[in-house]
Design brief:
41% helix, NPHP3-like_N, single chain, 31 helices, Serine Threonine Protein Phosphatase 5, Tetratricopeptide repeat, Ankyrin_rpt, ANK repeat, globular, 4% strand
Amino acid sequence: MTDNSPENNPSKPPAMEFGMFDHASQFTITQSTITVIGGNQINQSYMADSQKDLEWITAPNPFENFKIAYPKIIQGTGSWLLEDKLLQEWKTSNRQLLWLQGKAGTGKTFLCIIDSTLVVISQTDAEVGTHQNQTATVQSVQLAHPSMDSALAHEIICQECIIYLLCCGNVEIDVEKFALAHYAVKYWFLHSNQTKKESSVILDLSCKLLNTMQPAYQNWLTLYTPDTQSNKPESQKIAPPLYYACYTGLKSVVVYMLEHDDVDIYGKMNNLGGIYGNALQAASYEGHLEIVKLLLEKGADVNTLGGFCGNALQAASYKGHSEIVKVLLERRADVNAKGGSSGNALQAASISGHTEVVRILLENGADINAQQEYYGNALQAASQYGHLEIVISLIEKGADVTAKAGGYYGSALAAASSSGYLQVVKILLEKGADVNVQGGWYGNALQAASSRGHMNIVEVLIENRADVNAEGGHYKSALIAASFEGYTKVVRALLERGADVSVCGILLGDVLQAASNQGHLELVRVLLENGADLNAQGGLSGSALQTASYQGHLEVVQVLIAKGADVNASQQRYVNPLQAARSRGHSDIVAALLEAGANDTTPFQSVGQIAGHKPDFPYKFASLPPVTALQRNLS
């Protein structure tokens, strides 16, 4: 006869009944009845306004050690439990589990010590950890005990968390009403993964929760979505349960779902959904090798495109899971497939600094000079994040260090210069990188370094014959970049090398306008001393005085007026400095301009009325690369 019991057939979860928790009730998991005892009483007879009292009533940290918590106990707390007839019945019954619920301070926080399949009540009035027999009078109940099997503890906690979610999650979970919800939603699957052996009870509970027909599934993900940065849903379409079983590493659950293949309940293996697109990519990203193998054996498409990383190979490469990378390549994953936040697998590994994965990918035919939109190529990606060993390896394997790589920075040298990686800059220059190659957001490497204030890199680039007057990029020139961002030392170094103060950009105007826009008083003085044109017109601001007036930089306005700036110079966007100051409500600057002879006959126009005005200009322009979704995981 076939034994279909849960103990001998772990792939087949047994039936289960649930009931909402009452003050005192029971519900059943498989063959085990759980007795529920609720307590809302806080012992009052010994209450006083002492710090100890407050410490005991305050709900303890879930990771707090019992030896720390035990001295805080107030005599008499928990008497509601000891006097409850259900406890007495439970002690003499064959039921395995006891569930406590109650308000903070009632003494409920972890009751049980698990010994095999029985819950053992321990007396601790003499010494923490002194076991009495099960029939002894219970004086207090332990939180934990050094002799307790940690894997078994994880198993019990996991069961309790899932039961809590199933019972509370039939409707939207009210975290104010159900205080354990925040813990349960975050940690149930982590506790599951810490158990030593497969548990039919946990399998059963997990499959009940990971079920599209179960309201608790959606309510769990609403309260805590494990694969998103915010841990909140980022789409109205919820990924199928199989996806989350793979993402969280629940191997036995994945086995069960794949064997039963109920697409209505668990979803299809190659279904698109979730941040990582599909189950294989999710498992690859999180490093669950055995689950990856299971999915591939069951026919998962190794090259399915979609999701945050583009495909499974990119996901594993980005996280540095070399064994998974090997398995995917053995299953004919396309090593040069494009897509996702990284561009391709080689760039993904280069971004994250995984030297071994880079080696594996190159040995399996990865195109070392493949071009992609944001990172340009693998060399630029590695240079941007300062992975010197990978930079050297890529160059030795044939990466074109002189390539105009495209991407955000335009070249590996500009990427390293912007990010401030001096050793990478030196290596690239030693290997023949063109110091004056044009392209990307910053135009060239010198402008990139100047905009970020990397003085040591500016000096190295100039020593290697960088053109201090090269034009292009966001700021137009390195001097305008350093002036706008306020790096006085860099400005002085560029001026000493002959940087032209008269260069004028379409957006920021010249160097004096750039410094005035941001209120860099010292720089304004330095630039004036070095021949900057006080009344130069250009850019969206019109003049240095006009942009300083608009931005509210009184001291800069005073210096410019003292040096002879034309207070009545007109420019279409803001009409004149007086109008610019009035449009923003800078009364102190209005007074300074009037005192200096500003013409007050022009009818006032509000900021919204000024011809061509853009309300958000001239606020600080973006000087850093746009934050991609990928970068959120690099910190």
